Amino acid sequence: MSDKIIETDALIVGAGPVGLFQVFELGLLGVKAHVLDTMPVVGGQCAELYPDKPIYDIPGIVECSGEELVANLMLQIKPFEPTFHLGEEVTEVKAIDDDWFDIRTDDDTQFRTRTVFIAGGVGSFQPRRLRFEGIAEFEESSLFYRVRNPEKFAGKRIVILGGGDSALDWTLALAPKADRLTLIHRRDEYRGAPATVDSMLRLAEAGQVEPIIGKVSGYKSDGDGITAITVNVGETEREVACDAVIVFYGLAPKLGPIAEWGLDINRKTINVDTERFETSTPGIYAVGDINHYPGKKKLILSGFHEAALAAFAAKERLDPSRKARLQYTTTSPLMHERLGIKDD
Ligand code: FAD
């Protein structure tokens, strides 16, 4: 086995609320985990789709926002020291023998793990892409869906597409570096935070940003890159010359590579049993929104329950000679030790 391969007992695909709680349930049973997510931040739908919205049906918590729930889950799993690999999509899951799985990511990271927990929710969040013919070939050269290194855009003529928080935030961040920045949005109303919209309009007044309200109709290229974006403004078509186009049309979840892993799939979900939350492949469990069984409800609390039972099932697989005993966190010295709590 090469040095580059990371070996672990448990690997969790997805750092949404259920993937995070899976770390906790495994940790209580003495199993450490690696966690991967396509997104650069943890929290899944709670972080991406409703960070500020209140949730009212987490048992014992009267009200908390998506962001608060994720922050608390991160605190709760801290004692178990999970290793996070964020911004990496798991592309391949393959059994190598009865005991080990080979996992690969789009960043060429390779793992060898004894159990896999798919907590992929509604799939990995992918940016909504521009659909013009041939434009995909310019991705990462003159067409971008995220900004990894802002310095790369210094001195360039930039076109940003979109009218939400990401489009506005990056407009503010890149305007001082750009040779010229044009923000194209289809409506005369921006979906970003009011303070950010105001800052953008102030930059526009100062001539540092040109906002255009219109519908993008196509692009021009010289074969090496995009040279202009065409946009319909009322009845006229305008051509905006550029060196780089950055698109922020939001994120859409896609089941993506999970569909290719040879598991028993039910439309866009994975069939599991309700005792072990195991998939059709022994040693691979599926928890949270991604799984399917009779009566399934896509709720965070259902995912938490599933994570607990999947952890017990995995523990038995990892250590078949000993039955995993249920112990209360209130009274068990072993649980306290694992949680890092000092008993008097
Ligand atoms: P997700 O939160 O979807 O997280 C899955 C993660 O897996 C994502 O981050 C994704 O990027 C990652 N992933 C997927 N595929 C891969 C891959 N191949 N490689 C790497 N990473 C991958 N539920 C409630 O219980 N109460 C509520 O009040 C409530 N309100 C909601 C409000 C809104 C607006 C929405 C949209 C949902 C709400 N829900 C609510 C549902 C709740 O958010 C979901 O049930 C919950 O997020 C499921 O958690 P999860 O961890 O299974 O999946």
Task: Write up this protein.
By secondary structure, this protein is α/β, with parallel strands linked by helices. 22% of the residues lie in helices and 29% in strands. The protein has seven helices and 22 strands. The chain has helices at 17-28, 44-48, 66-77, 165-174, 194-205, 300-318, 333-339, and strands at 6-13, 33-37, 54-55, 64-65, 83-86, 90-95, 101-105, 110-118, 124-127, 143-144, 157-161, 180-185, 210-213, 215-221, 226-233, 236-241, 244-247, 251-254, 265-266, 269-271, 284-286, 291-292. Strands 1, 2, 5, 6, 7, 8 and 21 form a seven-stranded mixed sheet that branches. Helix 1 packs parallel to helix 3. It is elongated, with a radius of gyration of 23 Å. The chain starts with 5 loop residues before the first strand and ends in a 5-residue tail after the last helix. Bound molecules: flavin-adenine dinucleotide.
Distance between the termini: 45 Å
CATH A-level architecture of the largest domain: 3-Layer(bba) Sandwich
H/I helix tally:
7
Give me the Rg, rounded: 23 Å
Which small-molecule species are bound to the chains here?
flavin-adenine dinucleotide
> What structural class results from the helix and strand content?
alpha/beta
SSE layout:
Layout: E1 6-13, H1 17-28, E2 33-37, H2 44-48, E3 54-55, E4 64-65, H3 66-77, E5 83-86, E6 90-95, E7 101-105, E8 110-118, E9 124-127, E10 143-144, E11 157-161, H4 165-174, E12 180-185, H5 194-205, E13 210-213, E14 215-221, E15 226-233, E16 236-241, E17 244-247, E18 251-254, E19 265-266, E20 269-271, E21 284-286, E22 291-292, H6 300-318, H7 333-339
Parallel strand pairs: 1-2, 1-8, 2-5, 8-21, 10-17, 11-12, 11-17, 12-13, 20-22
Antiparallel strand pairs: 3-4, 6-7, 7-8, 9-18, 14-15, 15-16, 19-20
Bound molecules: flavin-adenine dinucleotide.
